[in-house]
Design goal:
The chain has 386 residues and is of the alpha+beta class. It contains 17 helices and six strands. The chain has a domain of 132 residues: Arc Repressor Mutant, subunit A (Orthogonal Bundle), CATH 1.10.10.60. It is globular. Keywords: DNA-binding, Transcription, Transcription regulation.
């Protein structure tokens, strides 16, 4: 099992909990593949009643279960199978709000703003660059150590949501996955019905920006307002702090090389001194949180993709490979290559820098889609200056 719940500064992170529908989908997918969920729970020493009732379960436990299930059933795309069982209705009140939003763009912005009521521990981003829209998903808590499984499951669900909101003639342009390409990628091609790029730095669905203006058929404004009111009441009941909210913001920005306190100030999220004072009161600093975000993404890309260490260094905005190696050693006690050897699954292909030099890597997500200035993500209200 990979190192899991500590950040780059050694602090323990909150435990992310799944919604009940996720574990039901896991159970159904495992049974369909011929596995006994009870046997898997026993092997992992998890609660035999994990699938009972409507209680939430730590994502770390579910991700361990999915990982073992994928191995025992010889189904590396188990996360995809679980995600494609979800629908707009699976999102409960958030699904109602999206279904009755005026346009697809309004629905997706609602998803970005309110994803926390449905799925604590991950952040959704919506980027627009000219005629391209990008809907991304990134776990930022302890479950980020299983980001490949977590992300492909989420992208499958978001693809189903988009299909429910749009006309029949709509299609994805591209799908980006932060995992190495499996030996058989046909299940991904069949489900997404679009080119699927593996070994990417983020998980994202790419589609025409024109879709954002499309009206949602049958949307009822009254139902939309009622659902939004219920969601805001749920959000008011949730415990939150500045540290966790900045983790969300930084997770979206870390691969865009914008993890700087000065930028936060320029965006008017918070005054720099106020930010520092409030974070100190919570036992951390902006630099610690930024390093934590970089460390988590670095570990995920080293373990789940075949990107070279040099490419990962560039993705995270380091000026040179030596600087990345020095930082990673400070965070983990070992080098990026050493950490990869100890933590990368044995059945994955070699990293890109060890493969045939004639093989060209996929263009990076940032270079192709995020050069433009517009990238909408949740900027929590409590970050405002106090």
């Amino acid at each position: 099992m990979r190192p899991g719940s500590a950040g780059a500064n050694g602090q323990l992170l909150p435990v992310a909990l799944s919604r009940p529908g996720v574990k039901q989908a896991i159970y159904a997918a495992l049974v369909e593949l011929g596995a006994d969920p009870g046997d898997l729970l026993a092997e992992l020493k998890l609660d035999p009643g994990l699938f009972d009732g409507g209680t939430r379960v730590p994502y770390a436990d579910l991700n361990r279960l999915i990982t073992l299930g994928a191995d025992r059933t010889n189904c590396p795309h188990l996360g995809l199978l679980i995600g494609q069982r979800a629908s707009l209705g699976s999102l409960r009140q958030l699904g109602v709000l999206m279904r009755h939003s005026e346009t697809v763009g309004d629905a997706l912005r609602a998803l970005v703003l309110h994803v926390g009521v449905q799925n604590w521990g991950a952040v959704v981003g919506l980027g627009i660059d000219c005629d391209i829209a990008v809907l991304s998903y990134a776990p930022y808590g302890p479950e980020a150590d299983w980001a490949a499984i977590h992300s492909e499951r989420a992208l499958a669900t978001m693809a189903n949501v988009l299909r429910a909101l749009c006309r029949a003639d709509w299609a994805l342009q591209e799908v980006l996955l932060p995992r190495s390409k499996p030996r058989d990628a046909s299940p991904y091609d069949r489900f997404f019905q679009a080119p699927v790029r593996f070994d990417q730095e983020v998980a994202a669905l790419v589609f025409s920006a024109k879709l954002m203006e499309q009206r949602v058929a049958g949307a009822k404004p009254v139902v939309c307002r009622m659902a939004e009111g219920r969601i805001r009441r749920l959000e008011a009941e949730q415990a939150s702090n500045l540290t966790d909210e900045l983790r969300q913001y930084l997770r979206i920005q870390v691969t865009r090389q914008r993890c700087k306190a000065e930028r936060v100030a320029r965006l008017r999220l918070v005054d720099r001194r106020t930010l520092s004072r409030r974070l100190r009161a919570e036992g951390t600093t902006f630099r610690q949180l930024a390093n934590e975000a970089k460390f988590r993404v670095a570990k995920q890309l080293l373990a789940d993709t075949t990107m070279s260490v040099t490419q990962i260094s560039e993705v995270l905005g380091f000026s040179e490979l030596a600087a990345f190696t020095h930082a990673f050693r400070r965070w983990s006690g070992t080098t990026p290559s050493g950490w990869r050897r100890e933590n990368k699954p044995a059945d994955t292909v070699q990293p890109m820098n060890a493969r045939n030099a004639t093989e060209r890597p996929n263009p990076s997500f940032r270079a192709r889609y995020l050069r433009g200035p517009i990238f909408f993500c949740h900027l929590p209200a409590s970050i405002d200056p106090a």
